[in-house]
Amino acid sequence: MSTTWSDSRVVSGTIASTSETQIGTDINVPQNQTYLINGLMAAHPQGGTFRIAVDSLPGMVGNRIQNSTVTKALSDAGNGSAEIYPANFVVQGPAVIQFFATNAAATTGLAKAMINYQVTQG
C-alpha cells in the first residue's frame, strides 16, 4: 500500500556573485519515494534567474526568472502577490534536487528557493 501527502522544502544560502551559485544544500529524494513537483519559487535581493537541477533528469533546462527580491515573504508587501511557478514533473528516488541562482548584481544577500511537491511512498 502506498501513502501520499503534500509537502514543501526551502533551501537558503548567502550569495554575493553574478556567477551561477548553488542555493543552500541538496534535497535528497529517498529511494522509496516519488515526488510530483508542482511549484517552484526563488528570491534574492538583487533579482536575476534561478535554475532547478535534478540528477535523474539530465535533459531538463529548468531556468526561470527569480520570483521576488524579498526572501521573507511572497512579495515586497508581504501580501502574497508574487506568483509561485507552476510545475508538473516527477522525480523518482533516489535522486538529488539542487537550486542555483544567477543574480543580477554581486551584492551580498540571502537567497532562498522553495519547492512544492506531492510525495508518494511505497
Short description:
The chain is mostly beta strands. It has strands spanning about 5-15, 20-30, 35-45, 50-55, 65, 85-90, 95-105, 110-120. A hairpin with an 8-residue loop joins strand 4 and strand 5 (about 65).
SSE blueprint and pairings:
Elements: E1 3-15, E2 21-29, E3 33-43, E4 48-54, E5 63-65, E6 85-92, E7 95-103, E8 109-121
Antiparallel strand pairs: 1-8, 2-7, 3-6, 3-8, 4-5, 4-7
Features:
60% strand, single chain, elongated, 4-stranded antiparallel beta sheet, 8 strands, 122 residues, mainly beta, 0% helix
Mean pLDDT: 91
Structural class from helices and strands? mainly beta
Q: Tell me the fraction of residues in β-strands, as a range.
A: over 45%
N- and C-termini, Cα separation:
6 Å
**Order of helical and strand elements:** EEEEEEEE
Q: What is the helical fraction, as a range of percent?
A: under 10%
**Structure annotation, total helices:** 0
Sequence stretches where pLDDT stays below 50 over 5 or more residues? none
How large, in whole angstroms, is the Cα Rg? 15 Å
Largest sheet: 4 strands, antiparallel
Give the oligomeric state of the chains in this entry, treating copies of one chain as homo and distinct chains as hetero: single chain
Shape: elongated
Number of strands: 8
